[in-house]
Amino acid sequence: MPTASPAATPEGPRRPASQQGMRRQNLALVLSTVAASGPLSRAAVAGRVGLTRAAVSSLVDELLGAGLLVEGETQASGKAGRPGRALALHDRGPAGLGLEVGPAHLGACVVDLRGEPRVWHRVPALNRSRPAEQVLGELAELAAASTREALALGLRIEGAVLAVPGVLGPAHDTVEHAPNLGWHGVVPAEHWPAALRAPELENEANLGALAELWRGGEPADTLVHISAETGIGAALVIDGRLFRGAAGYAGELGHVPVHTDGPRCSCGARGCLEQYAGARAVLRAAGVRGTHRDPVAALVDRAREGHAPTLAALTRAGEAFGTALTSAVNLVDPAAIVLGGAYTELAPWLLPAMTTELTARVRVRPWDPDTLRPSRLGRRGPLLGAALLTTQRVITDPARLWD
Amino acid sequence: MPTASPAATPEGPRRPASQQGMRRQNLALVLSTVAASGPLSRAAVAGRVGLTRAAVSSLVDELLGAGLLVEGETQASGKAGRPGRALALHDRGPAGLGLEVGPAHLGACVVDLRGEPRVWHRVPALNRSRPAEQVLGELAELAAASTREALALGLRIEGAVLAVPGVLGPAHDTVEHAPNLGWHGVVPAEHWPAALRAPELENEANLGALAELWRGGEPADTLVHISAETGIGAALVIDGRLFRGAAGYAGELGHVPVHTDGPRCSCGARGCLEQYAGARAVLRAAGVRGTHRDPVAALVDRAREGHAPTLAALTRAGEAFGTALTSAVNLVDPAAIVLGGAYTELAPWLLPAMTTELTARVRVRPWDPDTLRPSRLGRRGPLLGAALLTTQRVITDPARLWD
DNA sequence: ACTAATTTGTTTATTGCCATGACGAATAGA
DNA sequence: TCTATTCGTCATGGCAATAAACAAATTAGT
Fold first, then answer.
1. Would you tell me which of A180, A227, A354, B92 could form a disulfide with A205, CB atoms 3.0–4.6 Å apart?
2. Is the pLDDT at A88 greater than 80, yes or no?
3. Domain ranges in chain A?
4. Given this model, what pLDDT does residue B13 score?
């Protein structure tokens, strides 16, 4: 995922701590505590985070006023004493809009502060054969419609993020290269209706990983998320944050060498994982010809039917994955390896060989096979992640909304 | 480096921001600004970090009082206006004590706040053939002597860290396994004189990486540091912090697969890097027999003499390194790869093949050969890092000294 | 040489935020 | 009904930074 970070690591002089910063941080602390631990009374929040009830009251007042929290009825605790009043994330407050462009579809989704999807659209669209401008125009309409629907639900969109299946420029404003769309050097903001604010761009695989982090079930704050998009990409989440690498090229799992003398790869090297487990390689080995509208579905169909070359190709891909992931496990030691994107649906046929290989190769340390699992979100991950990016930002820093 | 973190990631509810915390953070901000940018006046610090001069004055007063900063004479700026008074890190303030146990030596060093080594001892000692208790007793004496010397220089030791060439237990109080020392399940604190405070333990390779981060010349806050100690270890520094992985097993470069069907490794897998570039493998391929006191020196001697099998073995090791590092580069995308420890001295013979291999294999992204470089610190790295760990902690949170 | 301009460091008043402790409110149990 | 307990709020105080004014020390200009 060669996507450089738009804001380089601010390693130099940090910003000073001020009283406003302190307020800001405590607002975030209260909000994220409620987000993490369901409905909670002021006193419960205070006890949990270490602030006084008075301080929490003041912070909660501000969050209520901003429409980020709602106060429910008194909740009977069963114990003696005055019952507290339940505080929960507002389901009609700020929301995030996620957008997605695929080769054959457009997607839009709106999530509320709780992370619940409230609007969901996925419409077929033959984007490869149309100019980018037209595609983006249609996407903007879908975005506008979704925004209207959100408004009708009482939600206000605080930010929009477009999941891009390709490589972004260092400033995150250009799609350098998205072969599946036929885009090269496209700047979406230029083709966006002037009346609407253009969405922020982020790599699809990265968003899938973040969705997995935030709503993937098993909590794991250090994970590797694998997806097929432009080649094979692994997005790395480290300590709960997306890790892009020093130059933005971290997670190039597709070009990890599997067999040093293997077939030559399009990148120029030999024996890259992509030559064994990449979409093109698997399709060819499975004997799938021509261009299917949904090549993955074609593979799944054949695998279900027990088509021998397909099963063999998937097993071979799984083995190669296992070898490449051995490197990833030995180097990064993630708490979870998630098979996302198209690989989610192929997991039943990929996982056995991957698990066998990993179990045989990862020996210097205890290896739990459950570390490797298919995504719970599957293809919905990137779109969901795009929408969640905004709401997560609000939760980690609510003050951004009013100053 | 299977060393679990003693303090797990505090992902849950963080601590609230208080006014004391604000003070604490700003003290650290001022101190680290002075540390990073040489002598600076109060006004210069204020301008740089964004605090008012008044606030900086108050913070500086506290740091002067604590003996962390010294005020120099007025420094003529050449420009109009009253000249500022230079503030610099105190060279007679808090200091860090680093300790080291190797198979054939003991080491101790003291660094001042500026990171300058002020006391340095490296004494030969045949530690493999002696019981751990005796070794640690001698080390404690060396530590006490070093502390006395530091005291004579006006330094006060604020913490001691022991660099261990092996695997630590999860609580970082036990040496689970240090084959080069013949230690298994040793708890150094139990053998330490009761009168002295036992040192904290940290893995030698990790400390080498930190030393490289803090005093390695080219600044790079995301780096891979390779060293040979127990097998081949890569310590990962990510965003300026040591990355241990979810379970503490990150950086097991030695067991990254190089040839899937290669020779069986001691770990049970096949074709691990260690089978090509590990100390034992290289020594055998070079035809070095018996147990040298310093096997690396033996290799360097033969390589200098042009001994063909040695040169071939080193080239082969370099190639294998190149392949394994291709995985590391593609996955982690570090700003620097540093050849540390014993490999520093072998760098002249390893680097060419490594560079060739990396240049040929890393193709999906721009690859700068200068990313790979030998350590400037070499074998001194771990000991220096052990001492620096304490002073760096003081600089990043000076308030720890008085509350 | 003297004044003006400029920059530094300190002093004083003000603001903002949280802690402390007291109080009314609301519930369970006796 | 009374008491114990817990919840949320209010008034007060302390602390740390900001803002603004002042004194000190230097350069530049005439």
1. A227
2. yes
3. 19-89, 94-208+382-401, 218-375
4. 54
